Records
---
Amino acid sequence: TASMTLTGVYVLLITPFDAAGEVALDALEALAHDVLDSGASGVVALGTTAEPDSLTAAERGDVVDLLARVCRKRGARLLVGANTVAAVRALPESTVALSLVPPFVRPGEAGVVAHFAALTAASPVPVLVYHVPYRTGQHLSVDALRGLAALPGVVGVKHAVGGIDADTIALLADPPPGFAILGGDDAFISPLLALGAHGGILASAHVATAEFAALVSSWRAGAADRARALGHRLAALSGALFAEPNPTVVKG
């Protein structure tokens, strides 16, 4: 099921640039192998951490092609930031589209569900909803999240609500079958996992990748004492890595 495949840590890869300002594909390839060697379940291409709006269309294509090749070779999962019908239709097979709740326009919960119904109907690949209300301006209740989970083609959510609210508790207390709930707020990943989240999509996991992977596996195995100690240490690391706007500190 989707929830079985979308577990573990997915690293939101930065985009390395060379001294001339070109995308350093060799460095990106080495970075992808490094995080996969360290226990990541997969990587994310063209997430906001990757600065995709700073890339040309050709550069974005080169990044996706490279990371798709790496993930096929490694048997890892590739998520790709893709928010429109045209973008998801262009994705390679075996990827998952990471698609943002429509930002700024605040279409309402019914509008969000209608948007994803249209997107998944057109998409050749599964879709993972990116829910980050403090950036999109659109809150989603647990009922709306369940409505999204019921759509064919939606395999889960990157859940980044800036904390743990009542809707988060209700969702994790009774998760929809086959629906992966992946934490997207790095500092809150340990308590989300304690509540039952399946994994995380984390920029912080560029650093201490193996420990973030161990955090997920420890909570899922019920090793609470080990997980709690790891979570405390990694929350402090995430706080430091987000002390300036992402991905400034990670890239540094």
---
Amino acid sequence: MRYLYTFGILCYGIAIRLASLFNKKAKLWIIGRHNIFQQIKKRISDNQSSVAWFHASSLGEFEQCRPVIDAFKKQYPEYKIFVTFFSPSGYEVRKNYHNADYVFYLPLDTMSNASKFVDIINPQIAFFVKYDFWFNYLNVLDKKKIPTILFSSIFRPSQYFFAWYGKWFCRRLNAFDHLFVQNKESEILLKKHGIKQCSIAGDTRFDQVMSIATNVKQFPEVIRFVGQSRVLLAGSSWEPDERLLKNFIDTYFSDNIKIIIAPHEIHASHIEFLMKLFGASCVKYSDIANISDLKDYKVLIIDNIGMLSSLYQYAYVAYIGGGFGKGIHNILEALAFGKPVCFGPKYQKFQEAKDIVKLQGGYSISNQNTLNAALSELFDSEELYKKASDVCLQYVQDNKGTSDKIINKVMNL
């Protein structure tokens, strides 16, 4: 089975190489791994201090990784932090992360690559976050008896580990010295299938969003745009989300409501689409400094990356995008500021979304009517809004501290 798995990985590598001829992200994936071992050897000295390896698939997973890296660095300052990414969307944004000594792409998970990589960096401990399972790397780490941790993970009966063909993959989970999961259902499922070294720790993103909310950045131009208005902030929105929001403001008109849109895609064609969709009352963040009077502008388009997590402080209500596609984006950043949230119907894979809907701090919407009803309630009823806001804040407070649980376990290892 391991050879079949490796063959599949090699086929994936070939497919990415072909895609790189016409896909920018795939091209970055290939370029970033060119002469990867030579790149790493140039940076690492033979007599360097101990290394802790942290691997994240992409940017979202890295945000879950950050509080654990920071906590580990505080507890073990003598260690070098080695971070790897699978995806360019993570590497390109966080390649200069201040608490990492080395940041690289992860070489393709073949048997030879895994063995060579682990030999070169020689980690004393390895961390993987959420769903990124690379079985050749796990095999090498297991053989070398390097403590290996998985955290912020969720397991469901529908996953391939628990399918009729998944026994080999499920057994590979025993390569982890400990698996920290987000909920009781995951713990029960793992133990049922013989994975005993697991426990509930929660989601490290709670620690991360609390840190952001405590040390929040200020944006004077956004403050000037908002004025005394209440703000509907759309975070990581896609076109279906944006069309729904446009229809809402066309039917629910109020002089003291403004909209800030931080779209998931900020390439020129999508920003142009948004400018046309919202019309003359729309302004881009990159242009706002040149406009002295903003009272006639009702919609602000954020045409850069990096502001969103702090922008939620200016929101009255937050709409989180992605729920009409593969799944919703991060709602915790909004909850940490006590902002009630709305999002599309595809949220079932996200524990925090299920929780906040149940607690009545968030609304799942399926069409224009349900969006209009949810937002109208929140904007019209101060009592309902206050209750939802308090629920959001309390939920984040109740779930922080995951990073400390992980580091305490690491101390034992």
---
Amino acid sequence: MENLQKSKVLITGVAGLIGSHMAEHLLSKGYDVSGIDNLSGGYKENIPKGVRFYFGDLENKLWLEGVFREIKPDYVYHFAAYAAEGLSPFIRNFNYSNNLLCSVNVINECIKNDVKKIIFTSSMAVYGVGLPPFKESGIPHPIDPYGISKYAVEMDLECAKSQFGLDYSIVRPHNVIGIRQNIWDKYRNVIGIWIRRILRGESICIFGDGTQERAFSDIKFCLDPFEKLMLEHGGEVFNLGCPKQYPLNEVAGILADVSGEFGYKPAVEHLEQRHGEAKYAYCDHKKAERLLGFKDETDLRQTMKEMFIWAMKQNDRE
């Protein structure tokens, strides 16, 4: 791949899990990295030293125009979003403002400032309740406002490329985990939710009977493929995630066992099944393996142990 060191890269959502790790990865490779975050779901201490940080909201078009004029980025990674599928039907306005309209503002600035490429993190939520493993060639059919908003951005990017020549790649990561994940949000990041509850002496809560199957991916395996997409595979969509899925009951059991190493003994509590939740949700990653050299070797127990040790050192938050 062409040497892109010293290229100017802008990351939205830089204080979150994916954004902070990607910023750290790019800085280690010699890129000039700037980042945007409103700190509504990420935390300033997550942002690596060396990142030129802009605190603000993507909804503020005039402010965003100024940031783009100042940075003049070559590449943009658009990670900023509020990813709460189950909550999204109850926060429709916030969901579409945060995940769709803010994305449109970023896309507009990429067009106006001749950005070479935008890499957008969509979501497995665009697939809805199709037949897993979901493939990129399948027709998306999202079943909640969060998935709808993500698919709308995908379609808008396709339109922007056709009309204005804005190059893009789309990644549909799913259940990405690791240290720096927001474990204090009650509505997203199931493993983070469980860790927070255990640390507070509460039960591990599972909606339904726990036979739902999910795959969890350590963030470190996503970073090289993300970097490769700066120059490769414009207009393409890629699934990124772990090839092994687990019933949630098994995941809860592993985490309970991990927490037991540190003196915690959480109970597992089953709650009423959530309406519209897909029972089986995991993806096919052969395209990313073939074209991006993607190889996910997540050790779920080890990654959750790293997260738990990290979480025990954090100050509790609201």
---
Amino acid sequence: HDWKPIGVLPVGFCMILVVTFLVSTLTQFFAPAEQAAIPLIVEEQDLLSANSLYTTTMMASVIVGFAVGEPLLAIADHIWQLIVGGSGGLGKELLVGGSYAIASIILLLLSTNEKSHSNQREYPHVFADLRDGFKYLGENHRLRNALIQLIILFSVFAALTVLAVRMAEIIPNLKASQFGFLLASGGVGIALGATILGQFGQRFSYNQLSVFGCVGMTASWIGLSIF
């Protein structure tokens, strides 16, 4: 609190930006490797079941994690105060960082029997890849339209996530740190929608499903703005 701001931004906020940037950057290394490791540790005939179980577990962890995250963080801070004493503490930070460390150790102990790659080095050609990608999008209007829809969709989701924090602040008897409950309810909705889609989605065309989804989301946002 005593440090001078960097320009107009508080130092603490700048540190949060740096941490968020690093987490997002490292995720780009971790996520593709995570997906590629599944075929290495699962037999080919079990891949479909493994991918389904992986998706279900990930969705369940999002739902449960957002719901129990705030109580767990509060317990971690309470334990820290009992051990060290004082009002401030690092219980939340140790819990989150320790969870990453435990996951890293488990991954190090995982045997994937991955084959070593050749020593031949391929130099990056980012701009050439981008040029080829934009050229392909220009020639394939279906993929281009789908990509535009995804960009709009995730932009709206990002805005809603920011609004959810503010909603948690102004809703009576609800702390801002408890906005995870709102996101958990969204995760339940995603799981329910995926289940319904798997059971009855084959009866409709992709265009119909897209229209139904857009109309439903629009009605939900209008209801959110009203209530």
